[in-house]
Amino acid sequence: MVSLQSHEALRVAFVLMMAAAVFDFLDGFVARLTGQYSEIGAQLDSLSDMVSFVLLPTIISMKVYYIVGGHGWWSAILLIIAVCGALRLARFNAEDNHASDFRGLPVPACALFVGAAGWYASSYIGMPVSAYMQWVVLAVGVVLALLMVSSVKMFSLKFDGVGFSRNAVRYVFLLMAFVIIVVAGIPGVGLAVVLYVLSSLVMWLAARR
């Protein structure tokens, strides 16, 4: 079920996903700077997010499952990413979009982790892999999905102006993420998402004390 064409397809998918993430960030940044908000714009933004950051990573995760030796209908478990991603977007639209924190893992973060995993896995098409890896892929997919609909507070990368004092956490995280990606390459994108999740968990737990 996996062909050599998947190698290029997975890499192209990740590049397009990265482009979508950049444009999504710039779109929101410009809107906040200019104060331009509209209901139709919010709905179009969510529709774009659904395609780029929910449906695409779901397909990629299922492809990765087969690359690592998965078979049969078990890949359907990864549809939970699509379900929870849709719920995450719906909840975001229903809540205060101007909050300083997110509730649950943002769908772009989930998508970038999956996309980076797809890029990495594309190098192993046709090569033998450990038998347990298919279960790891399913487990990681479920964890990502549940994080999206969780109540864990995760810091937003929406900049409050350009000053450092009000954006210290964001600047520090982006600097660390940049270093990780420079050192690790494309897989570093996935590692940066892990750093984001762990940092948010620590901050959330500290705030609850």
Which key terms come to mind for this protein?
single chain, mainly alpha, 69% helix
Terminus-to-terminus distance: 49 Å
- What percentage of amino acids are in beta strands? under 5%
Spatial sequence of strands, sheet with the most strands: 1-2
- Alpha carbon gyration radius: 17 Å
Quaternary: single chain
How many domains in all? 1
**Coarse morphology:** globular
Q: What is the residue-mean pLDDT, rounded to a whole number?
A: 85
Helix-residue proportion: 55-70%
Number of extended strands: 2
The number of helices is: 7
**Which runs of at least 5 residues are low in confidence (pLDDT < 50)?**
none
Main sheet, how many strands, which sense, barrel? 2 strands, antiparallel
Q: Structural class, from secondary structure content?
A: mainly alpha
- Element order: H for helix, E for strand: HHHEHHEHH
